[in-house]
């Protein structure tokens, strides 16, 4: 049982787990009390657990804590600030792009990674970026519109 | 668009944590903590409380399954009471606090649940106005309510909170209390922004999967290798290296592990060495439809019988027959089922995302051999379930593990638990027959549905079954007979459901249960008949409908989709496009939906791309048009996924499609556009919108494939492996 330093949402956190291979998802949710990243499959197939690691979208359910090191982890909670939502979060509200919302963390985090790489993606690029993020409610059309809106298109 | 403040809080109410959907926690806590609250659906105080500040608490037995219905229910109550929406909070599905309004299913939350709330609110409004009239010594008719303040034409006013004393709402729901005239609506009918979305995009929403209690432990279940396999043995030493294991719990064939941390529970469930007996009781999947046909029929349900169809068909010179089948499907929630249970002084409280907490309470009470009074189920929203998925089973698992270890336990199903053990939409087979007379008229229609027996009742709890404990269940495939009878006016019609003794995997209701599969067969077969008669599919339907609203809907659909009489498509290209039409009057008594699908087919590969759906939708009075559109879009996309891709696979022992790789669903690049025409009828009763659009999707796609290729695809899912051979 050893303490591990973790850079999450711009803060250094010290977390203590009894297995260094504990997936990052469980550390974020249970040790740090974050609710953005969600457990969907534990297999890296659905995207509900997505976080940014050094700006890249990563599936936290298959990312061992030991592999994170000094990398910067950003979750949904850290994407914007209390005073200012990230443009994606606001766009998802403006487009009412949520049904049950369980997948929405992944949709926003994956799209945030896309917008870092490309400020004005086409609809096709948005759909391809989100091709491995599953939504069961069928909110896809609104999600694409929300990402487009956040990109200012 | 009206923007409502986002507010949702977890609070302590009557000894249990309750998640409210609405206003500030302090007031709601005081309301909810009131002892011995009535949960009678016949009493106003069963549904409503109003405090001295005029804040309204709604107690709703119908719950928000991620559909946004709580926003719509808030609109209904705020409208009827003339209070701002920001003054209304909802407590959902708490057996100690909310009336039993039945399962949240069947697109009934507004049609039934919302109308119960509307009548309760109208009754409360009348009672408060009477008090105001007395207090102000004025005529009732001189009073009106605006923003929670009763105003008299004399200029006097009283906030409604000041009219409420201890038992003001302790009255019967008055069926004669006047409801607010539609012409005065300012909230109902508006695209009010959903109350839950801000917290969901900010990561502050409390899903069931986020719910925690102090000293809560983490449980995982270890299911048998075969559905009927028996637990022979397990070796506790196989997990001795994992820290924080509290206990391995065995009750009969029920096996679970409880640990101090979630990851230890996950690892232990994976690592525990378990020996199960061999069980191979499932039929050969490649022979599934033969198996269905050979399953003993226990009785027939005749859904409609007009004229004498059998002799009429026999007498016709032209006969048509076709068989349709719809595969076994899973619900496919993105978040696997989860529950928390806690025992205290011989009573259990279970936090659950169940769509039917009152029913679950009875089932848990039976399983635990407790009286109903010793079981409380509290709804907390989970991932969308789209029917009876595994939430109730997770609740049973949590209760069994919590009782065994004497601490609160959270059970989170893993992906394979959900895909493997949630109850399934049963395999559905339909034989269709029709007879055409010498005058080219369809004179007789017959359908035979093969579907498991049972009704929309209680589905067996997996944990209770494995543990050999009591259960109240029976075979429960849901309201699967609906829409077997048809909306068309043919002179001879007989629709028969053959109820089967059994079905391979435990059944329940998926979204639009039965209506989905039956409408697939009906509306595809209508298209087959129209083609046989060289009739336009739209005209053919219009000619056989005696239903003003239905006809108007189809005409608006024709305009929306730019429908034209059946063209002569070029069927020679490698990639061809077709349009297909389908129509449903849901259960023949409510919501009307018409659809045109625009579908592209690659004739070389058999691959199908659904490009666009046009939908005309009439569910009467619309409470929230944007919420309704969101639901319709969801119905279309989810059902396109079902039709193109989905099929539960199994070997002789167990489900084998245990993840998203083996049970793929529609992805972003494959999603069609959805173009919707909402027909609002504010003076008609509101009907449901969460299911009906699903029902038209399979036939619309099948009929589009026919228009483009001349081939009939009658077996869902329409995978390339099935479509390609049908094309040649």
Automatic annotation (TrEMBL), chain A:
Stretches assigned to the 2Fe-2S ferredoxin-type domain: 2-79
Annotated keywords: 2Fe-2S, Iron, Iron-sulfur, Metal-binding, Oxidoreductase
Gene3D superfamilies, A to Z: 3.10.20.30, [2Fe-2S]-binding domain (1.10.150.120)
Superkingdom per UniProt: Bacteria
One Pfam family of this chain: Fer2
Entry-linked CDD domains: fer2
PANTHER family noted in UniProt: BLR6046 PROTEIN (PTHR44379:SF6), OXIDOREDUCTASE WITH IRON-SULFUR SUBUNIT (PTHR44379)
Keyword Oxidoreductase recorded: yes
Protein name: (2Fe-2S)-binding protein
Automatic annotation (TrEMBL), chain B:
Superkingdom classification of source: Bacteria
SMART domains registered for this protein in UniProt: Ald_Xan_dh_C
Record InterPro entries: Ald_Oxase/Xan_DH_a/b, AldOxase/xan_DH_MoCoBD1, AldOxase/xan_DH_MoCoBD2, AldOxase/xan_DH_Mopterin-bd_sf, N-heterocyclic_Hydroxylase, OxRdtase_Mopterin-bd_su_IorB, TAT_signal
Domain Aldehyde oxidase/xanthine dehydrogenase a/b hammerhead: 202-280
Short name of one Pfam family: MoCoBD_1
Protein name from the UniProt record: Molybdopterin-dependent oxidoreductase
Organism: Mesorhizobium argentiipisi
């Amino acid at each position: 049982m050893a303490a591990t330093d973790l850079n999450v949402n711009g803060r250094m956190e010290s977390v203590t787990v009894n297995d260094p291979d504990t997936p990052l998802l469980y550390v974020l949710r249970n040790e740090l009390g974050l609710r953005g990243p969600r457990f969907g499959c534990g297999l890296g197939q659905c995207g509900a657990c997505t976080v940014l690691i050094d700006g890249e979208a990563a599936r936290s359910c298959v990312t061992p804590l030991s592999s994170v090191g000094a990398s910067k982890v950003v979750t949904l909670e850290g994407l914007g600030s209390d005073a200012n939502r990230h443009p994606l979060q606001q766009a998802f509200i403006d487009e009412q792009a949520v049904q049950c919302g369980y997948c929405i963390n992944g949709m926003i985090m994956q799209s945030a990674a896309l917008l870092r790489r490309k400020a004005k993606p086409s609809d096709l690029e948005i759909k391809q970026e989100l091709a491995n993020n599953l939504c069961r409610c069928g909110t896809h059309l609104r999600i694409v519109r929300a990402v487009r809106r956040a990109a200012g298109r | 668009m009206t923007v409502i403040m986002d507010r949702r809080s977890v609070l302590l109410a009557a000894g249990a944590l309750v998640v409210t959907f609405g206003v500030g926690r302090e007031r709601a806590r005081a309301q909810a903590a009131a002892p011995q609250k009535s949960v009678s659906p016949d009493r106003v105080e069963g549904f409503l409380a109003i405090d001295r500040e005029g804040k309204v608490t709604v107690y709703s037995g119908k719950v928000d399954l991620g559909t946004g219905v709580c926003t719509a229910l808030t609109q209904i109550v705020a409208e009827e009471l003339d209070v701002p929406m920001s003054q209304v909070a909802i407590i959902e599905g708490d057996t100690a606090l909310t009336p039993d309004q039945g399962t949240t299913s069947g697109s009934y939350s507004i049609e039934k649940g919302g109308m119960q709330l509307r009548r309760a609110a109208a009754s409360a409004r009348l009672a408060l106005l009477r008090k105001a009239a007395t207090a102000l010594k004025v005529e009732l008719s001189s009073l009106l309510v605006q923003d929670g303040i009763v105003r008299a034409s004399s200029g006097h006013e009283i906030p409604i909170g000041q009219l409420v004393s201890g038992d003001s709402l302790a009255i019967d729901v008055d069926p004669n209390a006047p409801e607010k005239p539609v012409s005065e609506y300012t909230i109902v009918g508006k695209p009010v922004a959903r109350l839950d979305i801000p917290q969901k995009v900010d990561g502050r929403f409390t899903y069931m999967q986020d719910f925690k209690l102090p000293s809560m432990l983490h449980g995982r279940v270890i299911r048998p290798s075969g559905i009927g396999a028996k637990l022979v043995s397990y070796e506790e030493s196989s997990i001795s290296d994992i820290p924080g294991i509290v206990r391995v719990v065995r009750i009969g064939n029920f096996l679970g592990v409880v640990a101090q941390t979630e990851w230890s529970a996950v690892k232990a469930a994976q690592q525990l060495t378990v020996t199960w007996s061999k069980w191979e009781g499932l039929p050969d999947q490649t022979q599934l439809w033969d198996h269905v046909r050979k399953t003993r029929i226990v009785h027939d349900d005749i859904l409609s019988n007009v004229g004498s169809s059998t002799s009429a068909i026999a007498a016709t010179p032209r006969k048509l027959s076709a068989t349709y089948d719809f595969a076994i499907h899973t619900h496919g929630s993105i978040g696997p089922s989860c529950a928390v249970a806690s025992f205290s002084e011989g009573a259990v409280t279970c936090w659950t995302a169940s769509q039917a907490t009152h029913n679950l309470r009875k089932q848990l009470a039976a399983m635990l051999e407790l009286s109903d009074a010793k079981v409380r189920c509290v709804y907390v929203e989970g991932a969308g379930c789209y029917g009876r998925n595994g939430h109730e089973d997770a609740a049973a698992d949590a209760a069994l593990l919590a009782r065994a270890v004497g601490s609160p336990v959270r059970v989170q199903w893993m992906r394979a638990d959900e895909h493997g053990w949630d109850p399934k939409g049963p395999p559905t087979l339909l034989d269709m027959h029709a007879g055409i007379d010498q005058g080219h008229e369809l004179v007789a229609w017959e359908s035979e549905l093969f579907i498991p027996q049972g009704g929309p009742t209680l589905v067996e709890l997996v944990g209770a079954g494995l543990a050999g404990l009591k259960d109240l269940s029976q075979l429960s495939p849901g309201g699967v007979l609906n829409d077997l009878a048809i909306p068309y006016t043919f002179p001879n019609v007989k629709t028969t459901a053959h109820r089967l003794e059994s079905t391979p995997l435990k059944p329940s209701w998926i979204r639009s249960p039965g209506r989905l599969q039956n409408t697939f067969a009906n509306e595809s077969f209508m298209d087959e008949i129209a083609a046989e008669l060289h009739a336009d599919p739209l005209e053919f339907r219009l000619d056989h409908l005696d239903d003003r609203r239905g006809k108007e809907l189809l005409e608006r659909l024709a305009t929306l989709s730019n429908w034209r009489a059946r063209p002569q498509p070029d069927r020679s290209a490698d990639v061809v496009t077709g349009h297909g039409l389908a129509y449903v009057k849901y259960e023949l008594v409510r919501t009307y939906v018409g659809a045109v699908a625009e579908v592209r087919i690659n004739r070389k590969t058999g691959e199908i791309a659904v490009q666009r759906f046009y939908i005309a939708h009439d569910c009467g009075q619309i409470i929230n048009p944007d919420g309704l559109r969101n639901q319709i879009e969801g119905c279309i996309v989810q059902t396109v996924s079902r039709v193109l891709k989905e099929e539960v696979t199994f070997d002789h022992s167990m489900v084998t499609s245990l993840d998203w790789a083996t049970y793929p669903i529609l992805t972003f690049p494959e999603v069609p556009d959805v173009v919707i025409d909402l027909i609002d009828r504010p003076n008609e009763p509101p009907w449901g919108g969460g299911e009906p659009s699903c029902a038209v999707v399979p036939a619309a796609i099948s009929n589009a494939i026919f228009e483009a290729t001349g081939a009939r695809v009658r077996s869902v899912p329409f995978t390339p492996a099935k479509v390609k051979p049908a094309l040649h």
